[in-house]
Give the backbone structure.
Amino acid sequence: MASTIITFTLNGRETEVMVKPLTTLAKALREKLGFTATKCGCYEGNCGSCTVIVNGEPVLSCILPVEEVEGQNVLTLEGITPAEGLHPLQQAFHENFATQCGFCTPGMLMISKALLDKNPHPTENEIAEALSGNLCRCTGYDPIIAAVQQVAAAPNGNQGGTHE
Amino acid sequence: MTTQAYFRPRSLVEALGLLDEHGPAMLVMAGGTLAMPLINKGVSRPEKVMGLRQAGLDYVRQVDGGVHIGAATPLSKVRADSGIPLLAEAVKNVAGWAVQNVGTAGGNLFAPPPAGDFAVALLALDAQVKISSIRRGERLVPLFEFFTGFLTNCLEPDELVVEIQVPKPVGKSVLLKYGRLYTNTPAIVSVAVSLVTENGRVRSARVALNAVGPHPFRSRQAEAALTGSLLDAVAIETASKAAAAECEPYTDPIASADYRRKMAGVFVQRALTHAAN
C-alpha cells in the first residue's frame, strides 16, 4: 500500500499529512508537520511524554497510528499556547518550579489540561491518578501537583486555552 | 521490513474477511497499546496490520442478564458505562488514563502477565468470550477456557474475539491488586473473588488470580475448599493456602516468584475476608 493522505484538525486548523502505513501520530506531528512540542520518550506507552488530546481525551501519540485520527480533533501543546504569554498551566508550572529538564513537561501539561477540562476542581488524589501515566524523573511530582492545584484554585483559572 | 498495509475494516464481516484472506501474516490489533510498542522497537515487523477500531466492536450494551462489551471498546468506556463496579475497579488499575482511553477490553485478554489484570474481574464474574470466524461462524467460550498458556489461547488463526459477555453479578465480589505504587503499577498479584452465600454457607465461589501464573486463571482448589463450607476464618485460611499452592509464579524485576506466591495467599485471604464482611 502506498502512502496515503490523512486529513484531521490540528489545533483548530484543517491539516493534511502524507504518511506511510502505520506511521504514528507523534512521528507525523514531529517529522512531517514540524509540531515538535510533543516529545517521544519511550515509544511504548509507558512514559506519557507524547500525550496529546484527541476529541477531548488524552492519548499517547507515539503508539497511535495517524490513520486513526482521520477526521478527528487533535490538540497539542502548540494549540494551547497563546501567541503572547503563557497558558495558565504553563504559568503555574513556571511559578512552582514544576519543570526541570523539561522533557516530560509537554505531556504533563496536556494531561493536566485534559484533567481540568473534565474536572475543574480535582482532589490531590485525582490529580495523582491522572498524572500516573506520565513519568517525571526530576521533580518528584510534588511541584507538578502543586501547579495543577494552583490553576484549579484560581478564578477562571482553566480558561485561556485556544482552539478548544 | 516496514509495514506495507494498514487495514481499517468498517465492519466485523470486512474484518473477518481480511483475516481469512491474509491469515497469520497479518497482525491484528485493536487499540494498539500492546502491538505498537513492539512495532516501534522493531521487535515485531508485520508486513500487514489490521486495526479494529472502526469495525463496529466499540460498544457496551446492557442486556437481559448482563452486559455485552464489544472487543474493541476502550477500557475507559468500560469503566464509565458497564454499570459493574468490579469491572470499573479492574480498569482503574490498568495503566494510566491515556492508555485506558486507547487500550481495549478485548485487547487486554492478549496482554501477558503481569499485565492483563482486567481478566481477573471477568473470570470472577464468569464472563464468556464470543469468538467469530467467517467460515465457521460464532462460538462462545468461557473465559477460563480461553487462556491456554503464556501468550497462547484457544483462538484459531481465522478467528477474532468479538465480544465479552458478562453476566449480571450475584453475591459479593471484591478485587484487590497489589503492586509497588498507589496506581498505574504492574501487579505483584491481582485477585478477584465472587461469592454467593446461603445461610452463612458458600453456595458458589470463584477465585481468580493474575501475575502469579502463565495467564489469568481461577483457583479451582480454593473454590472447592470454599464451596459448601461456612465462610469463617478457617475456610478462608484453607482457601488462601490452596490458591497460593496452585500458583505458578515467576520472578521478574517487580517481584520474586516466592514473594508472589506468598502475596497470592495473603491477598486471596484479604479479598475473601472483605467479601465475607
